Amino acid sequence: MLYVKKFQTFIPTEEAPTPNVAFVPMLTRRRLSLLSKMVVFVSDAVSKELPPCKVTFASQYGEISQQLKISDNLLQTGNVSPAHFSLSVFNASIANATILEKNTAGYSAVFSGKEAFRTGLMDCAAALEAGSEKERIFIFADEKIPETYAPVAGVPYPNAYCALALRLSTEKTEGAFELDLSPVAGKFDTAADEALEFIRTRLPA
Length: 205
Prior knowledge:
- It is a single chain.
- By secondary structure, the chain is an alpha/beta fold.
- Helix content is 38%, strand content 17%.
- It has helices at 26-29, 34-47, 64-77, 82-86, 92-101, 116-129, 150-153, 191-202, and strands at residues 3-10, 55-58, 107-110, 135-142, 162-169, 177-178.
- Strands 3-2-4-5-1-6 form a six-stranded mixed sheet, with helices on both faces.
- The radius of gyration is 17 Å and the shape is globular.
């Protein structure tokens, strides 16, 4: 049996299209994509003032906006900036979060397309059920697909996007609640749609 010790979500609205990451140093903050800002935001909320632990990160699209910038620049100049490239790899957002939190426990990055949310959550749960860890953080995040990709994305545009962090534990502590690992009901166009349904039906309001 697993328990949710802390959780944090970010669902963009017209009033708050991006999360507040004012706690991130300005020079670093300027380099973060929307995806990285969302991951840093939810990760900080479940990590602050708690011991570091391993993280499972899952995403369907990863740093797709940063990747498009790299591709555009490559087509225009024939060159790729190493600094920009490092911000476009799939795990860049969780790497940024763990660096900012000085979390050296380690992380895994799960990419399984439209099933990214459920497989990432199962990966995290399996690591805890194996018994070698007492706590682990699960983070799912996806950002809006660039409009350039809309005709070939194969999903409705604009797509759903959000971020979620769960700090999971094998021990029930004050304020923790049991994690329901049964499949979320419904058919979903994207992993983010499934994550949003999980937030709506499995987490306290």
